[in-house]
Here is the input.
Amino acid sequence: MPELPEVQALVDFVGQRAVGRVVTDVELGSIAVLKTFDPPPDALLGRPVDAVHRHGKFIDLDVDGTHLVFHLARAGWLRWSEALSTKRIRPGRSPVALRVRLDDGSGFDLTEAGTRKGLAAYLVAEPTQVPGVASLGPDPLAAGFSREEFGQILDGRRTQIKGVLRDQKILAGVGNAYSDEILHAAKLSPFALAASLSAEQVDELYSAMQLTLAEAIDAASGKPAADLKDAKRSGMRVHGRTGEPCPVCAEPVREVRFADSTLQYCARCQTKGKPLADRGMSRLLK
Here is the structure.
C-alpha cells in the first residue's frame, strides 16, 4: 500500500504535469470505483487542473473547484502516460478502473491488482465531504504538528504503539511499512502500549517519525510514478526483510504474522532480545 512518502511523491509528480492542463475526458473502467454520483464525471470536462494535494493517503485533484479525490488502497496504483491510448476503456474488461485525459494527450490511469477491491474515487465540492478525509488525524509532517501535540495523542492511550501509528483517525498517512521503520529507528517494541512510554521514548519516537518520513520523501522525490514502488522497497531497513541482518546490529530481522498482514522488527534493537509471539503460528498450534 502506498503510504505518506509515496503519495506525496505522486502528488508532486502529477502536479508538475497536470496543473494548468484542461481535463478533456474521464473514463470509468469500473463503475464501483466511483463512490459518489453528484457531480458526475462529465462535470470535470473542459475545466483546468488548479492544484494537486495530499490528505493523509488520499490524492486530491482540484479541477476548477471540483475535487477528484482518490485512495489507492492496498493494491491500487496511478499510472501516468505522456500519451494515453486513444482507445476507450471497455467497462468490466480492462485493468484500468478510472482514466483522466488531459488536453495535451497526457493523463493517468488508476489500476488495481488482485481480487480484493479497495480503490475508491470521489467527486466532491470539498475534500472533507469524503468520509475518510473528514476523519483523518493530524499529518505528522504538518508544520504545526509538535512534539507536545504528539505526546498528548499518546497520553493515556492504552493501545499498542504500532496500532496507534497506523490508525488514520489518530495520525494521517503512516501505514504498516513505515510504522515498522519508525519503531525500529526509535528502538521501540511494536507491542509497547502508547501510554507506557516515557517522555524520553516519546521524544525518540517523534524524532524517528519525522526523520523516517522526511528521508523517505526525499528518496522518492522526482522519481517517476512507475519507480516509486521499487524505491520504497529498497529503502526499507526492517519491513519486508524477514531473516535478513538488521542494518544496526546484524541480528536477523524477525516477523509477526496476523490474519492479513505482517510486521517486522529487530529483537535486539527493539525488544531487549526477546522474540515477540507470532500470532499466526500460535493459531496453527492450537
Residues 281-286 have pLDDT under 50 and may be disordered. DSSP finds nine helices and ten strands in the chain. Residues 147-285 form a domain with the Helicase, Ruva Protein; domain 3 fold (CATH 1.10.8.50).
